[in-house]
Write a structure and sequence with these properties.
Length: about 375
């Protein structure tokens, strides 16, 4: 910075910002033994967060850019090095900024703890404010992980559990997308097994799904099949109509591990891919996540919460995302994953099993140099 003949790096056009955004991240990487790729990812995130904040504060501001912008960037980069997801790094950066505005320090462990209990940026700010108040009442100028945990327990914040998708493709397994009761997207693994029925009368079992629900209509109560079961039955009907495959000849079992009951029609195309994989013995492409309703005719219908679902899929590491065509938005093209809008179950299968567009599709899945007839 004083003109010495040494390499320097700036951030958001400032050498001071560069020091704060780079050196803490680099020192943390050295301490953790992180490789060059992980360091590069963490530094890139640090610069991006710093530049994003500076874009709003401007070049001349009464706040310290090194502390607020570069400090938040460094916090995000450090969380990334510790294995946090991009979403956790974003929340940690928000918490870092809130702490600095309060005039209290917040170490890496406290930032990670805060990010793990936040569902949104507002949650991060609220936790920091309450934890900062507790620290101030005790005459301290630093928020500790214990302060964060106390706030989380008192306010009943649940720890965010991020489902990471397996990089290894498995037969009968794919990821569906849903929205939790808190409005957050969730990636859920769906398992399926299928075996020939002994006497041609196949069964359909659903594990971890709502099979029946009760509706209270004031004057009377109605019971109906859960929409997850309806989706599974629609998949079987679509296989019969579109692929001439009678799923009634198979004992089919779906399972959603994790103990969270799944409901809603949006799992339709994920159930279809899992079932096709189980019957044919061919695994779908790895890091695949899907959402979309399926009809008995094999059409893919729009569903709700697609933005939240895609955010959860990206956070879980998905690289191939399939959504209904009617849910497509231009902004999805900017996501760090390939997003495919589809209208029909055949399009879903082509993408899920990497079938070339020019390949014939008449009840078979091309596998390598041969054709595997569905139902063989």
């Amino acid at each position: 910075m004083s003109g010495g003949d040494v390499a320097v790096m700036s951030s958001a056009g400032s050498g001071n910002h560069g020091i704060v955004a780079v050196i803490p991240v680099a020192m943390t990487a050295r301490e953790l033994g992180a490789d060059d790729r992980k360091l590069a990812e963490a530094l890139a995130l640090s610069h991006l967060v710093c530049g994003y904040i500076k874009a709003y504060t401007g070049r001349l501001t009464p706040t310290c850019g090194c502390a607020v912008a570069a400090g938040a960037g460094a916090a995000a980069g450090i969380v990334r090095l510790h294995g946090g997801t991009p979403r956790q790094a974003e929340l940690a950066a928000i918490a870092e900024g809130a702490a600095r505005r309060l005039g209290v320090a917040m170490g890496d462990a406290a930032l990670q703890a805060c990010a793990s209990y936040c569902a949104s940026g507002r949650d991060a700010v609220n936790i920091v404010q309450l934890a900062g108040g507790a620290a101030h009442a005790e005459g301290r100028d630093e928020i500790t992980p214990e302060d964060v945990l106390w706030v989380a327990e008192t306010c009943r914040h649940s720890r965010r559990m991020t489902q990471r998708l397996s990089e290894t493709a498995r037969v009968g397994v794919c990821a569906g997308l849903a929205v939790s009761g808190a409005g957050q997207g969730v990636a859920m693994e769906i398992e399926c097994t299928a075996s020939r029925a002994a006497h041609g009368a196949g069964t359909l079992l659903l594990g971890g799904m709502v099979e029946e629900e009760e509706l209270d209509l004031r004057t009377r109560r109605l019971r109906r099949k859960g929409t997850a079961r309806v989706s599974a039955e629609n998949v079987r009907a679509a296989f019969q109509r579109r692929f001439a495959l009678d799923c009634g000849e198979y004992d089919v079992s779906f399972n959603v591990p994790g103990g969270v009951p799944m409901d809603g029609p949006s799992a339709g195309i994920a159930l279809a891919v899992a079932l096709m994989s189980a019957i044919t013995g061919k695994a779908p492409v790895p890091l695949l996540a899907l959402t979309g309703e399926i009809t008995a005719q094999g059409e893919v219908r729009p569903v709700g919460g697609v933005r939240e679902k895609l955010a959860a899929a990206v956070e879980a590491g998905a690289q191939t995302l399939v959504i209904p065509a009617d849910n497509w938005e231009e902004g999805f093209a900017k996501l760090p994953a390939a997003v495919y809008p589809v209208k029909d179950i055949a399009e879903v299968m082509r993408i899920a099993f990497d079938v070339a567009p020019e390949a014939e599709w008449d009840g078979v899945i091309p596998i390598g140099d041969r054709q595997l007839a569905i139902g063989d």
